[in-house]
Amino acid sequence: MSKKLTIGLFGFGVVGQGLYDIIKTKNLNLEIVKIAIKNPDKQRSLPSTLFTTDKDELLNNPEINIIIELINDTEAAYEIVSTALKSGKNVVSASKKMIATYLKELIDLQHEYGTSLLYEGSVCGSIPIIRNLEEYYDNELLHSVSGIFNGSSNYILSKGYLDGLDYDSALKQAQDLGFAETDPTSDVGGFDAKYKAVIAAAHAYGVVVNPDDVLNIGIQTLSANDVQYTREKRLKVKLVPVIKELDKGHVALFVLPKFVGESEFLYNVEYEYNGVVVQAAFADQQFFFGKGAGGHPTGAAVLSDITALRYDYHYEYKKAKEKGNLKFTNDIELNIYLRYENDSLVEALNFEHIHERYVSDTYKYIVGKVNLQNLIDNQYRILEERAFVAFADQLTGVSLATASKQAAELF
Ligand SMILES: NC(=O)C1=CN([C@@H]2O[C@H](COP(=O)(O)OP(=O)(O)OC[C@H]3O[C@@H](n4cnc5c(N)ncnc54)[C@H](OP(=O)(O)O)[C@@H]3O)[C@@H](O)[C@H]2O)C=CC1
Ligand SMILES: N[C@@H](CC=O)C(=O)O
After folding, report:
1. What's the whole-model pTM score?
2. What residues make up the domain containing 66?
3. What are 176-187's pLDDT values in tens digits?
4. Residue in 11, 23, 279, 252 with CA at minimum distance from that of residue 142
5. Residue 335 and residue 220 in one domain
6. Is residue 203 part of a domain?
């Protein structure tokens, strides 16, 4: 019989309960000894003796050998996870914001204390992308990793495009289904996708990037004109993080809405499903597809990490050792679609090339090439002015797939 896992679980919300549902269907030789929650007055589906609001009852319990952290409070999560790692307990977490924000510290803690932190559930829910980037693509030259990394925003886009549902109602449904973050701005504004991309970049390329340095523009300002424009061109809008190795040892990373054509894998990824497109030198293009949000899909990924701890699995962060010289950069050119009202925004973005321009009384747009840093500098203005930006490689004939062979000129 494999060694018994004794678990201290933090959080009994959507993911915590999803994990519990899965565990109870199987005889896995593991036991949840205690569950820490925040609100002692909330009605629970399990005996009250199992719950506590005192984190030390779990962290200081020598019988517990694994801590599972599934809470919705970033700072508290970091405190719990770092304390556990320091005290010799292995940890599984799905808290992508916490992991992306404190990735360097968490890697250092694992090395210093010889403990393991696994977080497959933090990136694209049920899709096993972290272990694949870490292990399978160990020796493969990765050109790019991109995809749909957020279920809620994809759900909203699908509900609008396919079912004609308005934005607010679709968001409410995503919240009711347990897909959305406590603050859904994280989902629709591209923050959540950015945290996931930051984590994926560490395993794909060995770069640890501060999320504050990464552009994220979301879908909040998508208008009827934008939708009409994409329909006419037989495109769809998807919220897509792109992680791309450039020439001369640089990695670019950004999150933008993207126009996606029928021939692209992401075109048919709908609702809460996520998709990851890996462009590799020899394997060429590969596609991972699965549910990206919700208690059971995420719980399944968390359980996979728990069982991996049985055989002492830990991330080696191999690319950081092998490719340690890669540097993150925002100095790249992108082809974008910009729908705007104020001409001064166009001036501020300082387009280097304009492919297409349209102006009427009610609708103005430009398709052209800008520097990513200019977008970052005007990120808040774009949102305030309710302008809409999308990565528009489809409109200029330069896609991530074809571009991979052209190094820095891809965009
Ligand atoms: N929902 C999803 O589809 C996915 C979520 N995630 C991530 O997983 C984590 C959990 O998400 P989710 O389950 O949806 O969140 P929920 O809001 O559904 O649940 C959060 C849980 O955390 C508990 N909690 C909050 N603060 C503390 C604290 N300081 N100590 C102990 N317990 C605490 C809450 O307690 P109480 O019950 O008393 O309120 C609640 O049980 C988040 O980081 C989220 O980003 C990752 C992938 C998918
Ligand atoms: N809010 C997230 C949940 C999973 O990570 C999403 O919608 O994808």
Report:
1. 0.96
2. 5-118
3. 999 999 999 999
4. 279
5. yes
6. yes
